[in-house]
Write a structure and sequence with these properties.
Blueprint (H helix, E strand, L loop, with lengths): L4 E6 L5 E2 L15 E6 L8 H8 L33 H7 L8 E6 L5 H12 L5 E5 L4 H10 L11 E5 L3 H11 L3 E5 L16 H18 L2 E6 L12 H5 L2 E6 L6 E9 L7 E7 L2 E4 L3 H4 L11 E8 L2 E13 L7 E4 L3 H15 L6 E7 L11 H13 L7 E3 L2 E2 L5 E2 L4 H10 L4 E5 L11 E5 L2 H8 L4
Parallel strand pairs: 4-8, 4-9, 5-6, 5-7, 7-8, 15-16, 17-20, 20-21
Antiparallel strand pairs: 1-2, 1-3, 9-10, 10-11, 11-12, 13-14, 14-16, 18-19
Helix pairs in contact: 1-5, 1-6, 5-6, 9-10, 10-12
């Protein structure tokens, strides 16, 4: 009998090594190698058994199927019909709906509402499709109790929503092949396992092999599969990065558990735009859609305090009007403090340096705090001008015009650079009743009815336009 052999697998990148190192030789991450025994998988086991069970042959009398090699002329030109999830916000993030045969990975912090979102989506999809909900963390009775709390009909004898409490992936795959559902939900990928692998559920090998097996079945049967992924303390989906390469779409469900709103963000999508967001609100009956998220992140425009400004950020193709709040005050420490909430810290430091060097505002001896109202995270350069105006307004203890927005990127030389999707941002501001907009000077500025444009090329000119000296 052969002696068992061990290898060391990186939790971050999935790289393998014959001996343990403090730093992964592939990706350079420290303390990421874990020991794993190498065994020979039995012939016909795991995903290979499923491949044999679902494989079809091609003969001279039958036309080539989608699983066989074909030329472009043999591929149908008809548009693939997408399935609606029942939620416009979810469909927006998916790129217009759920694509048959796609593999979607959803990650998020514990308790943020991933299972709630997918159970509600499963009930909506089950109206027209057969849906299989596989749960490895709860029993069938617990899922039924949660479904009843969410207002889902649990006593309908004609329901197309099937529930399976199972962690053995071979049993799960056999049920998918037998039931032939249009949609399958695996909650979560870290709880299922292949018996032929000696490593524990949730390990690198188990997560990688289970995902590959599910991907194979999804593509063969045109079954759309949702995978729930746990996240690490750094906020990344647990498991090797190869997991994100295997799937078609990667979504993150974000939000402060002490706030009512949740954001569904797309970071990878083979069938639509990335960085799209969908906004939901958590209520006692589960999650509901927010049709106008800009109003959610705006305060009372008529009662603005000093040090606040309004910007229009774009998440994918969706413009969001948000409020930035800045506070500049004398420091009581040897070195001044800088802190941000919902913004990039390095971006704040850069804006402070530009204001001191190019505008002449002494900020090196003052504490500076910047926050995005409503708990939203904004990192795009188009909000630079709003950041600068909020800081100057706090320094001068002044308020900007209540119906004014600022859009533009601030360069290190104090110039205001153009931004993408300017017309889309301006139309969103006009829709919410804004009257003026400070924008980068350009040869072709869009015309938006009801909105006065104030084009500027220098940061000094933007400060004069937004905060004129009385």
């Amino acid at each position: 009998m052969a002696k068992p052999r061990s290898i060391y697998v990186c939790n971050e990148c999935g790289g393998e090594s014959s001996q343990w190192f403090g730093k992964c030789p592939s990706c350079g991450v420290f303390n990421s190698l874990v020991e794993q025994q190498v065994i020979n998988i039995k012939a016909g086991g795991g995903r290979f058994a499923v491949a044999e069970a679902t494989k079809t042959t091609r003969t001279s009398n039958n036309p080539p199927q989608s699983r066989a090699a074909v030329t472009f002329t043999q591929i149908s030109d008809s548009q693939e019909q997408r399935w609606s999830s029942g939620y416009m916000e979810f469909d927006r993030v998916l790129g217009g709906g759920l694509v048959p045969g796609s593999l979607v990975l959803i990650g998020g912090d514990p308790g943020i509402g991933k299972s709630t979102l997918l159970l509600q989506t499963a009930s909506q999809l089950a109206i027209k499709n057969r849906v299989l909900y596989v749960c490895g963390e709860e029993s069938s009775k617990q899922i039924k109790l949660r479904a009843g709390r969410l207002g889902i009909a649990v006593n309908d004898p004609d329901s197309n929503l099937y529930v399976l409490a199972e962690t053995n992936l071979e049993e799960v795959l056999a049920e998918i092949v037998s039931l032939q559902p249009q949609v399958a939900i695996i909650d979560s990928i870290q709880t299922v396992y292949l018996p032929n692998l000696t490593s524990a559920a949730g390990s690198v090998a188990q997560v990688r092999e289970c995902t590959a097996s599910l991907m194979q079945v999804a593509k063969r049967q045109d079954t759309s599969v949702f995978l729930v992924g746990h996240v690490t303390k750094e906020g990344a989906i647990a498991g090797p990065k190869v997991l994100e390469h295997l799937v078609d779409t990667v979504l993150y469900f974000e939000g402060d558990r002490f706030a009512v709103h949740r954001l569904l963000r797309s970071v990878k999508n083979r069938f639509g735009a990335t960085h799209e967001i969908g906004v939901f609100e958590m209520v006692d009956k589960g999650l509901i859609e927010v049709s106008n998220p800009s109003q959610l992140f705006l305060g009372n425009l008529e009662e603005q305090s000093s040090g606040s400004s309004i910007v229009v950020a774009c998440e994918g193709t969706r413009p969001l009007v948000v409020e930035l709040q800045a506070l500049v005050s004398p420091t009581s420490y040897p070195s001044p403090r800088r802190a941000t909430t919902g913004m990039d810290y390095n971006r704040l430091v850069q804006i402070l340096a530009v204001l001191e060097k190019r505008v002449g505002i002494p900020l090196s001896k003052l504490d500076a705090y910047l926050a995005v109202a409503g708990g939203l995270t904004v990192n795009e350069p188009a909000v630079d001008l709003g950041m600068a105006l909020a800081i100057v307004a706090s320094f001068r203890d002044r308020t900007l015009a209540p119906r004014m927005v600022a859009i533009g990127e601030v360069g290190l030389g104090g110039q205001i650079r153009p931004v993408s999707q300017l017309e889309l941002r301006l139309r969103e501001a006009a829709k919410l009743g804004f009257k003026q907009a400070i924008v980068p000077k350009s040869n072709s500025l869009p015309t938006v009815p009801g909105l006065e444009l104030l084009p500027v090329s220098k940061l000094v000119d933007a400060i004069v336009a937004g905060l004129p000296i009385p």
